[in-house]
From TrEMBL:
Bifunctional aspartate kinase and homoserine dehydrogenase that catalyzes the first and the third steps toward the synthesis of lysine, methionine and threonine from aspartate. Gene3D superfamilies: Acetylglutamate kinase-like, Dihydrodipicolinate Reductase, domain 2, NAD(P)-binding Rossmann-like Domain, VC0802-like. GO terms for molecular function: aspartate kinase activity; ATP binding; homoserine dehydrogenase activity; metal ion binding; NADP binding. Pathway: Amino-acid biosynthesis; L-methionine biosynthesis via de novo pathway; L-homoserine from L-aspartate: step 3/3; Amino-acid biosynthesis; L-threonine biosynthesis; L-threonine from L-aspartate: step 3/5; Amino-acid biosynthesis; L-threonine biosynthesis; L-threonine from L-aspartate: step 1/5; Amino-acid biosynthesis; L-methionine biosynthesis via de novo pathway; L-homoserine from L-aspartate: step 1/3. Residues 334-406, 415-492 form the ACT domain. It catalyses: L-aspartate + ATP = 4-phospho-L-aspartate + ADP; L-homoserine + NADP(+) = L-aspartate 4-semialdehyde + NADPH + H(+); L-homoserine + NAD(+) = L-aspartate 4-semialdehyde + NADH + H(+). Keywords: Amino-acid biosynthesis, ATP-binding, Kinase, Lysine biosynthesis, Metal-binding, Methionine biosynthesis, Multifunctional enzyme, NAD, NADP, Nucleotide-binding, Oxidoreductase, Sodium, Threonine biosynthesis, Transferase. The keyword Flavoprotein does not apply. Its EC number is 2.7.2.4, 1.1.1.3. GO terms for biological process: homoserine biosynthetic process; lysine biosynthetic process via diaminopimelate; methionine biosynthetic process; threonine biosynthetic process. Homotetramer. It comes from Arenimonas terrae. This is Bifunctional aspartokinase/homoserine dehydrogenase.
Length: 833
């Protein structure tokens, strides 16, 4: 009786090439769905076919409820009637032929009459009893199989109807129901003598016990029946039809980007199923595994989709095929010097937990043997703690073990894939992704098969951890939750560039930049799935809100990475950088107030970066899209020393003095520069030299010099009378600039010189920004438009300074500089850039 499946002899009809199909309840929910199943079966080009069916959706539960009602003395007749009507209606729709239809209705009526008699008996006894309960539960499959078979016959197909109770013999086993293969195979062979048809419809879920009484296969029983009949009919493949495109790489409710997996090995499928992925149950697979039968998980709503193939080979793919998350767990650990080098500690832990009937989800022990920890279901944690405390009572009393520690709110993330075995770097990639997503790992386990790495993390980090790991193994794009503050000239250009580049970045770099928040000084827009459409329209309808809500919303997405891009010129916004960075939000900005602001603020920002993993990038603060800061950093990082910096650091001032020839009013050019988006929001910041001074401060600080804005000698081009008042008042009185500027210009021209606004940071530490008259052949006299020029004199470049030159202002180039920072950050976070 213990004969295994491989010993079972195939039925005489096994010479046929046969494919087995299994349809679940949702595929048979009503007449329309049953008709669709028939379409699939009739369209399949296969000589032999076995279709194993579940009950119509919800029918098994309805039958169990009927038995419960009858046993509890409640009136079961209305529900019985509804169930009868549902099947009678389906039968009417499925079988139009009068004679066949009447026969089917009469058969159904007889079935329901028998059910009614059973329920009456249950009501009298006050309990269904095991035998009646199993008989009642399994009726749904008998009815659905008959409906499908009758419909197929109506359409001219000669399918035989196999009631599994006539063939399949099972007995209770330790891990559930076990099949008596020799008896079942012999029964099938006998049945085939009178049912030689190539195509068969069989009932799932039900079978006969060794005593010949009807029984059921338990949870996932219909899938199990599919595999059993596939084996008994010696099928070439088993197709399990569901309502999804196959096995997904992760739970789509937690990772919306989860993808269907084309192929899995049996072992991968078992590992994923164990950790809760929506794969078929491992027990279901045993008959298939035993004979190397491929299982295909397919979508009955999209039969053209190939689905997931599960077989011995498992197909190609990355090292990790899928990820699962098990929630509702707790960590229970023992720690103490009394465990070191003591043989039998693990055995005592397991024995104590076994005696308390507690199943261990994961176990981990450091090689120092100083501690050992287990992950158990949270509702069993207290009992596990008590069991361990009792088992180690002596050591705890002697102070050799520091009691039992329990941590609730734990989830286990498991990465599964045959390709992990023998491949260096997989764990590094997983842990690197978790670190970058700021997820703390509480415990780790990897079996010697190297097919599964499991990590225990805090429940609140679990979704972020899953998404980060999913992206790290290229199962989906690296997803970055993005907020843009200040959609003014630069911000708007950036948003347009982001929108245009998004599809290509997703496709080619595996980077999903998801805009979740937008704010200007008056409005805050928060979105769930990213502003993929018209961001302007979204902001248009937004209400006022504060930046705390913006940061909370960004973090609330549980996306692996969060970035705020500050495109304002606001000091108040810059004041928040340190807090955001400390909270793990990366910051990117062209706004100089943060990095050139008061030293204590800058120090707080730097400290937040050092303490955590969040990064601040601000390349566009100097030279807009030019690589000025990066160049200086590269020089310093490779061991060079900065001696001096000199240059033209203002695009606005460069443009003004490149254009100004004394013929048109200087004020007209300032208005034009403002309209072109070169100036700061308030052009006085440019004309006063403050903007240039800030840039010099940024470069000095980059070189490690603690320079403050008030230490820079600044020559302002704004007459004292125009320094106060609103921006609008200043713009209205702009022609007040014209007289003094004309005079400076004429003086310089008389000497054959040109005017340029130059910044200089000397070796002596002196910082100065001023309008100077330069000889007409000076390098700074030959720039074009908004060109900046920055000359770095360093120890290596002491005879011939290193020069960075190019356009240094304008919304498009500045936005591109900000975007480059974002992409460099994304690359560091793991995007394929
Ligand atoms: N233009 C250029 O060539 C370059 C600019 N930069 C820097 O880029 C930044 C933006 O410049 P630009 O686009 O020209 O400026 P704009 O004036 O066009 O845009 C500023 C944006 O910031 C918003 N804003 C202001 N205060 C706040 C606040 N407290 N909270 C939220 N949003 C706020 C404004 O909103 P609202 O409309 O409601 O006021 C507006 O959307 C500046 O810091 C500038 O120094 C850097 C390099 C080059
Ligand atoms: N207004 C600034 C813009 C860049 O920082 C400039 O003109 O350089």
């Amino acid at each position: 009786m213990n004969a295994s499946l491989s010993e079972a002899r195939p039925s005489p009809a096994a010479a046929l090439r046969t494919r087995a199909h299994k349809f679940g309840g949702s595929s048979l929910a009503d007449a329309g769905r049953i008709r669709h199943v028939a379409d699939l079966l009739l369209a399949a080009d296969e000589p032999g076919q076995v279709a194993v069916v579940s009950a119509m959706q919800g029918v098994t539960n309805a039958l169990i409820a009927l038995a419960g009602s009858a046993a509890g003395g409640r009136d079961w007749r209305p529900d019985w009637q509804a169930l009868r009507q549902r099947h009678a209606d389906a039968a009417r729709e499925l079988v139009g032929d009068r004679e066949r239809g009447d026969a089917l209705q009469a058969w159904l009526q007889a079935q329901f009459d028998q059910l009614a008699s059973l329920l009456q008996a249950v009501a009298v006894l006050g309990t269904p009893g095991q035998a009646a309960h199993e008989r009642i539960q399994g009726l749904g499959e008998v009815w659905s199989a008959r409906l499908l078979c009758s419909h197929l016959r109506e359409r001219g197909a000669e399918h035989a109807l196999l009631d599994a109770r006539d063939v399949l013999v099972v007995r209770p086993g330790e891990l559930g129901v076990a099949v008596d293969w020799p008896r079942s195979a012999a029964n099938l062979a006998r049945w085939r003598e009178t049912h030689p048809q190539a195509r068969v419809v069989a009932t799932g879920f039900i079978a006969s016990g060794e005593d010949g009484l009807p029984t059921v296969l338990g949870r996932n029983g219909s899938d199990y029946s599919g595999a059993i009949f596939a084996a008994l009919f010696d099928a070439d493949e088993l197709h399990i039809w569901t309502d999804v495109d196959g096995v997904l790489s992760a739970d789509p409710r937690l990772v919306p980007e989860a993808v269907p997996l084309p192929a899995l090995s049996y072992r991968e499928a078992c590992e994923l199923a164990y950790f809760g992925a929506k794969v078929i149950h491992p027990q279901t697979m045993t008959p298939a595994i035993a004979r190397g039968l491929p299982i295909l998980i397919r979508n009955s709503f999209r039969p053209e989709h190939p689905g997931t193939r599960i077989d011995a080979a498992g197909g190609a793919g990355g090292p990790v095929k899928g990820l699962t998350l098990n929630a509702g767990l707790a960590l229970v650990s023992l720690e103490g010097a009394g465990l070191i080098g003591v043989p039998g500690t693990a055995e005592r832990v397991f024995a104590a937990l076994h005696a308390a009937r507690i199943s261990v989800v994961m176990i981990s022990q450091g090689s120092s043997e100083h501690s050992i920890c287990c992950v158990v279901r949270d509702y069993e944690a207290a009992a596990a703690g008590t069991a361990l405390a009792r088992a180690f009572e002596r050591e705890i009393a002697a102070g050799q073990v520091q009691g039992v520690q329990q941590v609730a709110g734990i989830s286990v993330l498991a990465a599964v894939g045959d390709g992990m075995a023998g491949k260096p770097g997989v764990a590094a990639r997983l842990f690197g992704a978790l670190a970058r997503a700021r997820v703390n790992v509480r415990a780790i386990a990897q079996g010697a098969s190297e097919r599964n790495i499991s990590v225990a993390v805090a429940a609140e980090d679990a979704t972020r951890a899953l998404r980060a790991a999913h992206a790290a193994f290229w199962l989906s794009a690296q997803t970055v939750a993005l907020a843009v503050i200040g959609p003014g000239k630069v911000g708007a250009a950036l948003l347009d560039q982001l929108q245009a580049a998004k599809p290509r970045l997703q496709r080619e770099a595996g980077l999903d930049l998801r805009l979740r928040a937008l704010a200007d000084s008056r409005r805050l827009w928060l979105g769930e799935h990213g502003a993929d459409g018209d961001w302007r329209a979204q902001l248009e309808g937004a209400a006022p809100g504060d930046l705390d809500a913006l940061a909370a919303h960004l973090l609330g997405a549980h996306l692996p990475h969060a970035v705020i891009v500050d495109c304002s010129a606001s000091d108040a916004v810059a004041d928040r950088y340190a807090g955001w960075l400390a909270a793990g939000i990366h910051v990117i900005t062209p706004n100089k107030h943060g990095v050139a602001g008061p030293l204590p603020r800058r120090q707080a920002i730097d400290a937040a970066c050092l303490a955590g993993d969040a990064r601040l990038r601000y390349e566009a603060t100097v030279g807009a899209g030019l690589p000025v800061i990066q160049t200086l950093r590269d020089l310093l990082d490779t061991g060079d020393e900065l001696i001096a910096v000199e240059g033209i650091l203002s695009g606005t001032l460069a443009w003004l003095f490149n254009r100004y020839d004394g013929r048109q009013p200087f004020s007209a050019l300032v208005r034009e520069a403002h309209a072109l988006g070169y100036t700061e929001p308030d052009p006085r910041d440019d004309l006063s030299g403050t903007d240039v001074a800030r840039k010099l401060v940024i470069l000095a600080r980059e070189a490690g010099r603690a320079l403050s804005l008030d230490q820079v000698q600044v020559e302002s081009l704004v007459p004292a009378a125009m320094r106060h008042g609103s921006r609008e008042q200043f713009m209205a009185g702009l022609d007040g600039l014209d007289g003094p500027m004309q005079a400076r210009f004429e003086q310089a021209r008389a000497r054959g010189e040109v005017l340029r606004y130059v910044a200089r940071l000397g070796q002596d530490g002196q910082a100065r920004v001023a309008l100077v008259a330069l000889p007409a052949d000076h390098a700074f006299a030959h720039l074009r438009l908004t060109d900046n020029i920055v000359q770095f004199t360093t120890w290596r470049y002491r005879d011939n300074p290193l020069i960075v030159q190019g356009p240094g202002a304008g919304p498009e180039v500045t936005a591109a500089g900000v975007f480059s920072d974002l992409l460099r950050l994304a690359a560091a976070l793991g995007a394929r850039l």
